[in-house]
Design a protein that fits this description.
Blueprint: H1 3-25, H2 34-50, E1 74-76, E2 86-87, H3 90-103, E3 113-120, E4 123-130, E5 133-139, E6 145-147, H4 150-153, E7 171-180, H5 182-187, H6 195-203, H7 208-212, E8 216-227, H8 234-244, E9 253-256, H9 258-271, E10 279-286, H10 289-295, E11 297-298, E12 301-302, E13 305-309, E14 313-326, E15 332-343, E16 346-352, H11 356-362, E17 369-374, E18 381-385, E19 410-411, E20 414-415, E21 420-421, E22 426-427, H12 435-446, H13 458-466, H14 481-485, H15 492-504, E23 507-509, H16 510-516, H17 524-534, H18 537-541, H19 546-549, H20 560-571, H21 573-585, E24 587-589, E25 604-608, H22 616-625, E26 629-630, E27 640-643, H23 649-658, E28 661-664, H24 665-675
Parallel strand pairs: 2-13, 23-24, 25-26, 25-27, 27-28
Antiparallel strand pairs: 1-6, 3-9, 3-10, 4-5, 4-7, 7-8, 10-13, 11-12, 14-15, 14-17, 15-16, 17-18, 19-22, 20-21
The structure holds 2-(butylsulfanyl)adenosine.
């Protein structure tokens, strides 16, 4: 064969390999199977052996141990690994503290003590210790289920194998951050974009010897499951971690008041560049464990903690184009395509422009020179543009009033709460009638919290859509694998893998199913509430009847907005058809009714007046945790009316008339005490 053709062929293979590496490392979304990857790697190496003139610095023969394994055992976390909500400015902190004070029903001058810890930008890990010995180490995974990376974690010197210090709980999982020091990162060849990627790549190596080559560090900061812990606060826990032999962050502090939090924030932000590890913010945790327990969690983040993010890195680049993306709910989002620019170690080529109003307010135009900010995992955005550098031909950007995908008119919803029109413009078509919305709906359908179909990434959805392989969610379950195996980048094995992943999800819980439908305003939490209330798909389908839907108002957390959206959803024939077709293929598991065996089993409660030392929200959550329920209408069926300060007299009168037991807060607390 001609040398030129051979070289072209060889470089094509190398560039394919790089594409797969990128998908695997940077996006954590592999696009081919392990065996196909290995096959390609072997082909390249064989080529090089046969034709010695073939060389590339990106050859897999030069880069060793690049490909980590996907084959780690999956293990459920006994206590989920939560994430943190973010705060960016003082106001966010004020609101955070206000929410806590309200929830705990404390006076506004109540002083909250915080454990204040730098937020290291690494990879979190959970280390299970039994009787003082390190047994299993897990990655965070999706927060509920992680990967067993014990052997790799064992190579990290900062992780003690045996705990000798006193008072170490009989069983505990210690959680913290795995990271690489900036100085060590500099010594590595430039295989990784930033220290975080290096830590992540190294932790997921198949061979622990590869992990060992990269000097990883571990800093401990919290715990998950534990037996018999005798510690009362986070700062006390951190002190103990130190005594037990774990590394803790030398910049940890105990601070009271937002003013002092802000002072410390400024101090660390300045100090940031001098540190030998990357931090992207500071974590504030309510110090007292008792209060943490009372505060509990919202969705997947605790109420008692927040991450105060540092201001972003920024860069300057040219806006090449403004594209309109259409989301799953029809929202038209303008995105600036910018000349690729490296911002803090990440190459940025897109920046969100949020909405039409934002473009108008900043008068952002194609061709403008813009400053782009990027903060951690938040999508980059444009902060300002340089009007002076604008060319003569620069024209105002005209936002489309018709959906660029299906041509339908666009609308701005009237917001019932703000009494204003939304800033977001939406396609007025009915979901599957608009091509772009359909594609986004299918991406959502296969996504992690919905059907969680492994290996079915966004690019694949787009590709299959363009090839007419899928148009509606039900098509996913009757794919033509004969066609798929012959597609570019596919093969018999990867087609079989996809089939396997899809078949695995034919058994699905009702809550995932409802969430997967992508009804506007029905996120994970609301889907859970609906499925717990409705139990079966049949009952869910009955919501298409007007009289049934209003029953949903009894579910706490479901309001007018959600009901309006569900009504709208069921008015559309395609939506009903999708559910019916899916019902023929899938086995949708009935949802378990909420645990009904607590001490308040079958008991209903109602409050009137202000309670002391506890907010309504916490009181309600306490009743529900003990299997009781709160009702909003007073009737004979009500078991207890709990009376606080300044009650509504009418409620007490009716309760008396109906023979409902009337109790005060002390009696109610006693009932709660009895339960433990
Ligand atoms: S506490 C429920 N403490 O931040 C509390 N997290 O967005 C959850 N992180 O996944 C974690 N430093 O990887 C906590 N001192 C610290 C932390 C910290 C870094 C990371 C961690 C977590 C993420 C949450």
């Amino acid at each position: 064969m001609d040398e030129k053709i051979l070289k072209k062929e060889y470089l094509k293979k190398i560039s394919r390999l790089q594409k797969y590496n990128l998908a695997y490392y940077d996006k954590s979304k592999p696009i081919i199977s392990d065996s196909e990857y290995d096959k390609l790697k072997k082909e390249i190496i064989d080529f090089e052996k046969k034709y010695s003139f073939l060389k590339s610095s990106n050859s897999p023969s030069l880069i060793v141990g690049f490909k980590p394994s996907k084959n780690f055992k999956k293990v459920k976390h006994k206590v989920p690994m939560l994430s943190l909500s973010n705060a960016f400015e003082e106001e966010d902190l004020i609101n955070f503290e206000k929410r806590i004070i309200n929830y705990l029903d404390k006076k506004s001058d109540f002083k909250i003590e915080y454990s204040v810890e730098p937020k290291i930008d690494g990879i979190s890990a959970s280390l299970i210790y039994k009787k003082g010995r390190f047994i299993t180490g897990l990655s965070r995974g999706d927060g509920k289920e992680g990967e067993d990376i014990t052997e790799n974690l064992k190579t990290i010197n900062d992780i003690p194998n045996k705990i000798l210090g006193k008072n170490f709980p009989e069983e505990i999982d210690i959680r913290g951050e795995v990271f690489i020091k900036n100085s060590d990162f500099k010594k590595l060849s430039n295989k990784f974009a930033n220290p975080r990627n290096a830590a992540s790549g190294s932790l997921r190596q198949k061979n622990p010897d590869e992990t060992k080559k990269i000097p990883l560090k571990f800093i401990a900061y919290t715990f998950g499951f534990q037996k018999n812990i005798q510690i009362k606060s986070q700062t006390e826990f951190l002190e103990n971690l130190d005594k037990w032999g774990f590394k803790i962050n030398p910049f940890n502090k105990k601070i009271t008041s937002i003013k002092n939090l802000l002072e410390n924030y400024k101090y660390l932000e300045q100090k940031r560049d001098e540190l030998d590890f990357d931090i992207d913010g500071i974590v504030y945790k309510v110090n007292n464990f008792e209060l943490q327990k009372r505060l509990g969690n919202v969705a997947n983040a605790p109420r008692w903690a927040i991450a105060h993010k540092f201001s972003a890195n920024s860069g300057v680049s040219k806006i090449l184009n403004i594209e309109i993306q259409i989301g799953r709910t029809g929202a038209l989002t303008p995105v600036a395509k910018i000349k690729p620019v490296n911002i803090g170690g990440v190459v940025v080529s897109n920046a969100t422009l949020h909405n039409e109003d934002e473009i108008k307010r900043k008068d952002i135009r194609i061709g403008d020179i813009a400053t782009i900010e990027r903060a951690g995992d938040v999508i980059p955005h444009i902060t300002s543009i340089e009007v002076k550098k604008r060319g003569k031909n620069s024209k105002k950007f005209i936002f489309p009033i018709k959906c660029p995908s299906c041509g339908s008119s666009t609308i701005k919803d009237f917001n019932l709460i703000t009494k204003k029109n939304d800033a977001v413009r939406r396609c007025s078509s009915e979901g599957y009638e608009c091509e772009k919305i359909s594609i986004e709906k299918i991406k959502h359908f296969v996504s992690k919290d919905a059907f969680n179909i492994e290996g079915f990434g966004k690019k694949i959805v787009e590709n299959f859509w363009n090839l007419n392989l899928i148009k509606l969610p039900q098509d996913i379950f009757s794919l033509d694998y004969n066609k798929i195996k012959d597609l570019d980048g596919w093969g018999t094995q990867s087609a079989a893998n996809l089939k396997y992943s899809i078949d695995l999800r034919k058994d699905i819980s009702l809550e995932r199913f409802i969430y997967a439908l992508g009804i506007r305003h029905i996120g994970l939490e609301n889907a859970k509430l609906l499925s717990k209330h409705l139990i079966t798909l049949k009952k869910f389908l009955e919501l298409s009847k007007v009289d049934k839907i209003n029953e949903l108002l009894n579910i706490d957390g479901i309001g007018e907005t959600q009901i309006k959206s569900i009504k709208h959803f069921f008015l559309n024939k395609t939506n009903l058809n999708v559910i019916n077709e899916l019902n023929k293929i899938l086995s949708i598991k009935e949802s378990k009714a909420i645990e009904k065996n607590g001490p308040f089993k079958d008991q209903t409660f109602m409050f009137t007046g202000k309670l002391n030392g506890i907010s309504r929200a916490e009181a309600k959550s306490l009743i529900e945790q003990n299997s009781g329920s709160i009702v909003s209408n007073i009737s004979k069926k009500l078991n207890y009316l709990i009376v606080g300060e300044k009650p509504t007299k009418r409620k007490i009168d009716i309760a008396n008339e109906l023979g409902v037991k009337i109790i005060n807060q002390t009696v109610w607390f006693k009932m709660l005490d009895k339960r433990s």
